[in-house]
Structures are given as C-alpha cells and as structure tokens.
Amino acid sequence: MLSRVDSKHMRPQHGAFKPKQHKAFSTIPRQRRKAAVPASWMSRWKTRQKVAPPPTGIQTQLDLAGPLAIARERIRQAEKAEQEARREPKLILHKTVQVGPECVSVNRFHTIYTAHTDVFIFSQLPAYYTDDAGGPDHVRHATHAVALLAAAKSLRQPSLMMKARRNYCKALSAFNHALREPKGVQDDANLVTLFLFGLYEGGVSYSCSRAIQVIDGPRGKNTVDLQENVYPHGAGGLELFKYRADHGLSNEVDRGCFMYFCHAALMEFFIRRSHLTPLWLVLEMVETPWGRGPILEPLVRQVIAFKKGFDALSRAQNNEAEPGKKTSPEALSKLLREGINVSDNLAAAVTFLGFSNVSSCSGRQQKLFNGLFIVTGKKSGCIAKSHYRALKIYVLERIMDLLSMIKESGGQVDEDVGPVPTWSDGVAVVEEIMEDMRAIFGLEGREQSSAEGTAYRTMTMFWPVVMARTSCFAGPRNGRWISEKMLDLSSSVGFGLGLEAAAV
C-alpha cells in the first residue's frame, strides 16, 4: 500500500502547470455584470422589457402590422385629411362660361342709352328686346348692331365693328321680310327697329381721326346731312307711319317714335341753316292721328316761321335773274321786329324753366320742347333749356344779318322795334349752353354723373352743341372747349354724330 505521501505525489503533474486565471478589471457595476441568460422566466421577461428598441427605419417581425391595423391606419389618415380640408377650403375652378360679345354689349347699351332717360322711345327699347327666338328677329339683330357698334367705337375693336355690320344686314333682311307679311307689318316692333336703324347709322356716320384733325386745325365748314348719313330710311319711315294711321294701328309707341322722328328732322332743319331740307318738306305733308305735319309747340312754330321768312328774303336778295332788285327796308324792319319778338319769347321760356319746379301744379310731369323731354330732374331740365337756347342762337344770328342788311340798304332801325340784341347777347347764350354741358355731364368740378344714360345725354345734346360750336358767337376759345369736351364724351360711348359735332 502506498502511503499518503506517495499518493499525494502520484497526482497528475499537468495540474501544476495550469495558468492562473485572473479576473479582468472592469468599471461596470457588479449588478450589470451578471449572467446574460437569466435563470428564471420572470427574469427573462424583465430583461426583455429592458432591451433597447431597434434603430429607426428598421422593422422587426413584431412591428409588421396586420390587415386590420392597416385598415385602421388608413381610416385615421382619411379622417385627418378630411379635418384639414374643412379648415382650409379647396380652390374650385369652375368651368368657363362662354358668353358672346352680343350679350355684354347689349347690357352696356341698355345702361348707357336706356337707363334714366327722359324720352319715351328710349325707355321702350329693353321691353322689345329678347335674346332668344321668342321676339322679332329684326329687333334683336338691330339691337345687337347698335350695341356692338357702340362697343367697337369706344373700345376701338375693329372685330366688333364687323359683327355689328353683319347684325345690321341681318336686321335689314328680317325687317323687309316682316313688312311683306300681313301680320308682320302691323307689329309695333317695326317702329322700334326703324328707330334702332337711326341709332346705328348715327353711330357710323363719322370717323374719329377726321374729327381730331379738324379740331387741331381751323374749324370746319361742313354740315351734317342727317337724311343722307343718319336717316336714309326717312321716307320709308313716314310711309310706315301713314300705313299704321290709315289702319287704326297708331298707339303710344307710334307717337313716341314719330315725335323723335320730327325732332331729328327739326334738328337737321336748323343745323343746315342755308335752306330747307327735303325730309322736312315731306314731313310737313304727312297726315297722322295727331294732326298734319310734325308735332310742334307754338313757340317752335314761331321760330320756324321766322326761318322761312328769312330764307325767302335771302333768296330774293341773291336772285341772279334780277340782280338790281333789293328788298325794301320796310320788309327788313318787319322781319327784324319778328325776330326780336321770337328771341324774347325764347328767353322767357328758359327763364320760366329756371323758376318752375319739376312737376307742374296739377302733379303731372312737365313735357318740354314739343313734348319730347319729360323733366324729372336738374339734368333733364338743362337738356330742355339747351334746346331753346339753340333756337335762340339761330334767331340772334339772323338778327345780326338783318341789321347788316338794313345798314347796307341805307335804312335805319325803327324806334318802335324796342331793345335790339347785341353781339354780347349771342356770346352769353353760347356760354349758357357750355354751363348746361358742365351740369349735365359733370365737367370741371361739377357733381359727377353716373355712367347710366351717358350715351343718351350725349345724343340728345348733339343739336345744342352743334349750334353753339358752329355759331359766330362762339369764338376760338369757346369753340375749342366745346369740341374737346364733346369729342371726349362721344369717344367714350361710341357716338359717331358726337364726333362730327366736335368737328363741323
């Protein structure tokens, strides 16, 4: 048996050479240096909760959502987008509505021509216009022609001018076709179309470039031929009036249209100072339900009688067949006395209008200057007064001519004639018309007038403006002022005759 010593020495020798294990030095606390795998499931669960989440953007198998989660997420996003849409409304671009130039032009035409008018026939134009096939074609095309023409001139659009001409030709064709039918010839719309033809032809009667040249240079000597340029349908219009009167069709539309027809003929009668016009001679022979000839008030008839007397005297003075024959001083004095009397009556009429109210004592509205203008305010009163002043300018010019004739014949003015008008009286009347223009159109610091009825006021002031512009009493300064103002107003509304009024 071996001894304990021997058995001790017989142990494996390799154990003596085993390297000694040293524990590494670490600053980590002892609690964190425990085994990586816990011993119990509870420890494992706690350790799993402490594991850091994976980096952003990297999805693990547990993070992958199922179909139900995806549906919920989409619903949540849709609700969020709906809430944002409610907070900020979307910009909705509606489909473009195609509107032709006729529609816009007609609305503008009714605004500047028929709104706040004091002449009956102007106020009836919207009632006879229809933009569909329900009304007469000639009224619709004629309205389009006038509206497009006014827009073309004011906006300087040649393409609109071509459209206006095409509509005018369509209106003429439809109008001629309506007159051939038994029922069509009895329609009141024919009178409205005839009036619209006059508006159209008045708009195309002159060019703006020529008007500017005449204003910059010396005053023109041309006259306005309304029968040739504005009312070429004058004779046919009179035949239509007679036909309707013979068949008992005349009504207030006939009267309103006929009154303005007479006004246009009377305007031409005095603008062309030298002789009688063919249209006026035919008009005096027309039989209507309101009498023979034009509708005139007594004061205007006095002026016409004085004009006819002076024209006859001038023809006798310039008679080439009897060059030695002279008018007697007595005849000249008689005509002078008549002219002074008419001038005083015109001055009294203007004074009466200045002191009278808008309504008469009976409560009815006043109808002035042959019953054409219904006085409803200050502007309409100024328009009526300007027409009486236009007649007074003509009478004063003829009085100056008669005084020169009496002086050349060696005679003298009778003492019983009374106060004889002077040159300054004529200048004062021209300045009064200029003052009326300031009040009517809101010029030079006066109360601004609205755009409604601008073309109507420009058209109705055509006669007084022409009479003042071409008068010998105007002078260079006043004449130029009238021309410039009328040119601006007529250009803005596309009124061709107004451009001519600035140039003649």
How are the secondary structure elements laid out?
Blueprint: H1 4-9, H2 41-50, H3 67-87, H4 101-114, H5 120-123, H6 137-155, H7 158-180, H8 189-203, H9 208-216, H10 226-229, H11 234-246, H12 252-271, H13 278-283, E1 287-288, E2 291-292, H14 298-317, H15 329-355, E3 367-368, E4 373-374, H16 378-408, H17 423-441, H18 454-460, H19 462-469, H20 475-493, H21 496-501
Antiparallel strand pairs: 1-2, 3-4
Describe the structure.
It is a single chain. This protein has 504 residues and is an all-alpha fold. It has two domains: 101-214 and 225-295, no CATH class; 299-318 and 325-355 and 365-502, no CATH class. The chain is 60% helix and 2% strand. The chain is built from 21 helices and four strands. The strands form two sheets. It has a two-stranded antiparallel sheet. β3 and β4 form a beta hairpin. α17 (423-441) packs antiparallel against α19. The longest helix is centred in the C-terminal third of the chain and has 31 residues, at 378-408.
